Amino acid sequence: EHAGQSGNNINPAAVPLLKRSKSERVIRTTQGVKFEDMYRNYQARLENFIAVAADPCSSESNVQIAQKVLRYRNKIMERRQALN
């Protein structure tokens, strides 16, 4: 450790995998370790589907696909809530 630096800078790679979120993935690259949050990626895709479904400039087939994905997601969420 360099002089003058506190030990508060925690390297995420040093945190044990058990303490990390289960939605977080560790990806090793040539530049180092990269962390990918699958929930954040899922939310981004979901927001994209909502935008495509609501955009009047989207093609009809893209709108239909986005609407179908969102209907399927809603059904899955309803089933999960019913099981809990």
From TrEMBL:
<protein>
    <submittedName>
        <fullName>Uncharacterized protein</fullName>
    </submittedName>
</protein>
